[in-house]
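Lay summary. Proteins are chains of building blocks that fold into shapes, and those shapes determine what they do. In this project we predict the shape from the chain. Here is one chain we studied, written as its sequence of building blocks.
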Amino acid sequence: MGTEQQQEFKSEKRRTGSPIKTVLFTDHSIESWRPKKDRDRLCFARSNITKGIKVIYRKKTNQKYWELTYYLKKRKLSTSLGPFIPGVRGTEYLAKEMLELTSKHKDLRRTHWLTDPQKTIKDKDQKVVEEDQRKEDQINREKELKKALVSVNSVIESLCIAGFTKVKIKDEFLSR
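And here is the predicted shape, written in a compact code that computers can read:
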């Protein structure tokens, strides 16, 4: 079979199903995309950063989510990378995230996944949860300390309201 015949076969193959919608990898293009149905997907032009990245719309929550699809040990896997929030969890954030994941989990040529990126994502989420918990604990401790510290003015006010009751300090009664 010659190369001309092979090219004919390749050109005759067509993708079945709905066409994949591809747009530029920018916050504005994702934000302006209006999905028509639940679980509608948006793909990007192929590059090192956007390979396997999709935006999925969930009608139930009315939000758009990042999804990474990858092949590991001849199995197709996918994982959520969180919600799409323009400016906060937009394209710049995702580009940094993908560079980190590819440097940790892909081979030197960055063509194949060697280990599962889901582990790194879970570890990162766990660190964020632990950090938030530490911050909450610190805020609660500060509030408890403020409650424990009673000012002199508040003590005087409470004694006036109580009618100057007798107080015992070092075996001596004060007032009346």
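What the prediction tells us: The chain has a mean pLDDT of 79.
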